[in-house]
Amino acid sequence: MIQTRSLSKQFGAVHAVDGIDLDVREGDVYGFLGANGSGKTTTVRMLLGLVLATSGDIELLGESMPSSGRSVLPQVGALVEGPAASPHLSGRANLATFDSAGARSRRRGRDARITEVLEQVGLDASDRRPVRTYSLGMHQRLGLALALLRRPRLLVLDEPTNGLDPQGIREIRKLLLDLNASGTTIFLSSHLLAEIEKMCTRVGVLDRGRLVLQEQLDTLQVPTGRVVVHTPDGALAAEILGRLVESVDDGRLIVEGNDAVEVNALLVGRGVRVSEIGPLRISLEDVVLQATESS
Ligand code: ATP
After folding, report:
1. pLDDT at 104 (0 to 100)
2. For the chain, percent of residues with pLDDT exceeding 70
C-alpha cells in the first residue's frame, strides 16, 4: 500500500528524512513512531504529495507519487496536522463543501454519507455548531470524518489522537480497528508508544530521519523467559515459588520460566488465587530504546 525507496528530504543543512524504505502492506495497522522532530510529519507530507522529496521514490497503492496523485489520492484518506476547516461553517457544512469538491464528487447520497461519517467519529451531536466553537479533540474528529468521506482503501493519519482525552483516544482506537477489520489499511504516526502498542500490527521507528526499525509487532515482542503473575495472594505465591521469583510488587510477581500453564497449575493447586498470568514479553518501549540507542 505504501512503498518508499531511499526517500529523503533536506531542508537546507537539515536531513529531516534520510533514506527511508517504508513497506506498508495491505491490511496493516502500521504505527510510525518517532520522537518530536524525528521526521514523521515530513514523511507523511511527502507520501501525500504535499512536500516534494529531495530524492527517492514513493509508491502509493502501487502507483508512483506524486505523479499519479490524481488517480491515487481519491482512494486515500488523510489527516495531517491542522485540518483545513472553515471556522464559521458547521462541521456538517464543512463536510458538504469537501464532498462537493473534486472530480469524483457525487451529489447523490451526500447527506447520508456525511451523517454516517459524523456518527463514526462521534460528532453527530455537534454537527450544526460552527467549527470555531470546537475543541481541539473535536477538530481532530472532524479531520477524521473528512478523511473517511471517500471510503478510502488507505488511511494516512498524522498523530490522529492529538488533543483527545483518554475516552476520546479509546473511541478513535476502536473506530480505526473497526475500519481495519472491514479492510482499510491504516498508517498512523504517533509519538505515543502505548497507543501504537495497543493497536498496531506493524511498526516503523524513525530516529533523526532514519528508519531504525520496521517489523511486525508480534515478532518484536519476544518472550523474555519469564512469566508474570497477578494475584491477591502475593506472599503465599512467593513462598511456594521460592527461588524462581525475581520480584514481587503489589500482587505482581515476575517468575523465571517459559511455561505459564505450569506455574498456574502449581499456584492454583496450593490455593493461590491467580487473576492473570502469561509470558512476560519485551515491551515496545524497550525495543524502541534498543533500536534508537544502537543506531
Ligand atoms: P513532531 O512530532 O514534532 O511533529 P516530526 O517527527 O513530525 O515532529 P518533522 O516535523 O517532520 O518531525 O520535522 C523533522 C525535522 O525537519 C525537524 O528538525 C524540523 O525542524 C525540520 N523541518 C520540518 N519542516 C521544515 C521546514 N519547512 N523548513 C525547515 N525545517 C523543517
Report:
1. 66
2. 98
In tens, the pLDDT along 187-198 reads 999 988 888 998
Q: Are strands 29-34 and 202-207 parallel, antiparallel or unpaired?
A: parallel
Q: Which residue has the cell 491515487?
A: 72
Q: For residue 137, which phi and psi values (nearest 5 degrees)?
A: -65, -40
Is the CB–ligand 1 distance for residue 32 below 6 Å?
no
Q: Write the DSSP string, 251-276.
A: TEEEEE-S-HHHHHHHHHHTT---SE
In sequence order, the 6+-apart residues with CB closer than 8 A to the CB of 266 are 240, 241
Phi, psi of 12 (to 5 degrees): 60, -120
- Whose Cα sits closest to atom 29 in ligand 1? 11
Q: pLDDT tens digits, residue range 254-292?
A: 999 989 999 999 999 999 999 999 999 888 888 888 888
Please name the fold of domain 223-293.
Answer: Alpha-Beta Plaits (3.30.70)
- CATH architecture designation of domain 2-216: 3-Layer(aba) Sandwich (3.40)
Gap from CA of 42 to ligand 1 centroid (Å): 6
Confirm if 187 and 28 have CB atoms less than 8 A apart: yes
23 three-class SS: strand
Listed in sequence order, the residues at least 6 apart from 124 whose beta carbon sits closer than 8 Å to its beta carbon are 115, 118
Does position 294 have pLDDT exceeding 80, yes or no? no
Quick count: other Cβ atoms within 10 Å of Cβ 210?
18
